[in-house]
Write a structure and sequence with these properties.
By secondary structure, the chain is of the alpha+beta class. The protein is built from 16 helices and 5 strands. It has a 5-stranded antiparallel beta sheet with strand order 4-3-2-1-5, with no helix packed on it.
């Protein structure tokens, strides 16, 4: 009995310690500051307030939203529906996730309500249900007009219209986003709207005009990542292979090994790999494309860059197979090309990136 009492006492102490240690976390853009922990008491698209315990006292702190990289909710205070929603979302079971997050939006803590709200939007987008995503964005803005995630709602709204090819809606989203940024003197929002405008020009095939916009922002701390990806896409479409390779290698050197830059790295590896494809260096190209397929995409996120990496890796395998004299090697590379294409079709149905890979496989003799 004494041993059991000691065990239970130790367990309760451990639980109490865990509860004391668990806190909301604000991860900052500044790598030197890293993070802040405490209880998030309010949040909007300008300011997030967090109370931090200092020598037994709760001291309120205000953090500029632009300085925040991510917000993580105290795992102890997450409601069951929120946690199960996250699990379902991570497994790609978006319908269940939406149902759970809708319930979690009734929680008393605003940080839970808002994060559950944006997760509903993210789930519909992840499920490629763009009408439902746009409806969820509209509802979320009505529920939380000044939500911390307001900027993200504009960005996802833009991607929905991009996916459906609605040029008029794209232009309207950019206009609304820019207007909101100017009204509130949020320079990072107006810069982001400019980069969106560059992407709209890409969609219209105006590559040189788009390149001029993206080139202005590639070193910008707020929108540099998106601008850099846009610049690489434009150089590829303009078939400026020398400059594309140079820009890609600068990006790889700058971001390799750093957290939060997997999309940029995948885009850069894709770009350099395409220059190798053009030069007939198929195995070097395949090594670059596989960075995005297997190494950088550990979390399984669906992104434009990962989609392209899958298609290009399939193409590179097919080109290697076509050039091989040894039948066993030819069959191995052809089989891998087909596997990568099947994976592309599964994750990105009707992907426009599949055409070239499919053609390359058909050309294997």
């Amino acid at each position: 009995m004494a041993a059991m009492r000691n065990f239970l006492a130790a367990s309760l102490i451990a639980v109490a310690a865990a509860e004391a240690a668990a806190q909301d976390t604000i991860r900052l853009v500044n790598p030197d500051a890293q993070k802040m922990q405490g209880e998030i008491t309010s949040m909007n698209y300008r300011i997030v307030e967090i109370e931090i315990e200092v020598t037994g006292l709760r001291v309120p702190q205000k953090v500029n939203a632009r300085d925040i990289r991510a917000i993580e909710i105290d795992p102890i205070k997450r409601p069951f529906d929120f946690s199960s929603g996250e699990d379902a979302m991570n497994k790609g079971d978006f319908a269940v996730a939406v149902e759970r997050f809708e319930r979690a939006k009734k929680d008393s803590r605003d940080v839970v309500k808002q994060t559950a709200g944006i997760n509903v939007v993210r789930c519909h987008y992840g499920n490629n249900d763009f009408p439902a995503c746009l409806a969820a964005i509209k509802a979320f803005r009505q529920e939380k007009p000044e939500t911390y995630y307001l900027r993200e709602t504009y960005e996802i709204e833009y991607r929905c219209h991009l996916a459906t090819g609605n040029v008029g809606a794209l232009a309207k989203t950019v206009e609304d986003f820019e207007k909101r940024g100017k009204a509130d003197k949020l320079e990072e929002w107006t810069k982001s709207a400019d980069v969106m405008r560059g992407q709209l020009l890409e969609f219209q095939g105006k590559w040189q005009e788009a390149l001029s916009i993206h080139g202005r922002f590639t070193r910008d701390k707020d929108v540099g990542d998106e601008a850099m990806l846009g610049e690489l896409r434009c150089l590829r479409e303009l078939k400026n292979w020398a400059q594309l390779k140079a820009k890609a290698e600068v990006a790889i050197g700058s971001f390799k090994g750093k957290q939060g830059n997997d999309r940029v790295l995948t885009g850069a590896y894709n770009a350099r790999g395409e220059t190798y494809l053009q030069a007939g260096r198929f195995k070097d190209a395949l090594l670059d494309f596989m960075q995005g397929v297997d190494i950088l995409n550990k979390g399984g996120e669906t992104t434009r860059e990962h989609e392209k990496a899958l298609a290009l890796a399939s193409t590179a395998c097919a080109r290697i197979a076509a050039s091989e004299k040894d039948k066993a090697k030819k069959d191995t590379y052809k089989g891998r090309a087909q596997e990568l294409l099947a994976e592309l079709d599964k994750i990105y149905p009707n992907s426009p990136a599949r055409a070239e890979a499919g053609k390359a496989i058909q050309e294997i003799k």
